[in-house]
Amino acid sequence: MNDLNQARNHVLAQIQQACLAANRDVSQVQLLAVSKTHPSTLLKEMYATGQRAFGENYLQEALEKIEDLKDLEIEWHFIGHVQRNKTKHLAEKFAWVHGVDRFIIAERLSNQREATQTPLNICLQVNIDAQDSKDGCQPDDVADLVKQISQLKNLKLRGLMVIPAPDHPQAFSDAKQLFDQVKVHHAHAEDWDTLSMGMSGDMVEAIAAGATMVRIGTALFGARDYLSQR
Ligand SMILES: *Cc1c(COP(=O)(O)O)cnc(C)c1O
């Protein structure tokens, strides 16, 4: 039993507890291990505990780790802000991109995804609580973007991603409501199954509101030291 094993078991127990309290099946909530700033060796240790889905925010750093760990069966998720000129690597190397908030980005990802690969899984990022300096489309734009993006060939639009301000759990319920609204009108409703929300500090509230994927960094790996890494 090492520390990472303990940390992961603790997080899984918290997820289970939150599901129980919310009367949800624990299989409905996936744990994404957010590994930004941590070295490949640590990811490898986390992998050994059974973790397969890892989330990264910074493209260059992520590409190095993907290369280092290419012999492992990791499912790579990009959860950072997507810049228009960086889509090619995302399309080629990742299984999921969570931060899509404009049609042009989705279109580029679709065009740059090889037809021989499985479709790239996408979450539409929504600025659910009207933060000023925040990425994400407006809630009012979601319906149209879903309609447009779900027609792109090499993508699979899976749902929504939100990063509400801390101490604003109402935002999780708003996101869930929007998520359900879209599903009703969605031509590809069978693909629409992911609500990516909740981090180390607020995963319980996010699960209570309906999160299907929680993105957990600190509670798994400890505090991040940006200075030593970047
Ligand atoms: C860093 C990050 C996380 C993880 O945050 P913790 O508080 O360390 O769990 C989750 N989601 C996004 C988008 C992040 O950038």
Write a compact overview of the structure shown.
The chain is an alpha/beta fold. The protein contains ten helices and eight strands.
Would you write up a description of this structure?
There is one protein chain. This protein has 230 residues and is of the alpha/beta class. The chain has 10 helices and 8 strands. It has helices spanning 3-21, 40-48, 59-68, 87-93, 103-112, 142-149, 170-185, 203-209, 218-221, 226-229; strands at residues 30-34, 53-56, 75-78, 96-100, 120-125, 155-161, 194-196, 213-216. It has an 8-stranded parallel beta sheet. Helix 1 runs parallel beside helix 8 (203-209) and helix 4 crosses helix 5. The longest helix is centred in the first third of the chain and has 19 residues, at 3-21. The mean pLDDT is 95.
Q: What is the string of helix and strand elements?
A: HEHEHEHEHEHEHEHEHH
Strand order, biggest sheet? 7-6-5-4-3-2-1-8
Strand content: 15-25%
The proportion of residues forming helix, as a percent range, comes to 40-55%
Query: Main β-sheet, in a few words?
Result: 8 strands, parallel
- Described by the principal axes of the CA atoms, the overall outline is globular
What structural class do the secondary elements suggest? Answer: alpha/beta
Total beta strands: 8
Stretches where pLDDT is under 50 for at least 5 consecutive residues are none
User: Roughly what is the average pLDDT, rounded to an integer?
Assistant: 95
Hetero ligands: pyridoxal-5'-phosphate
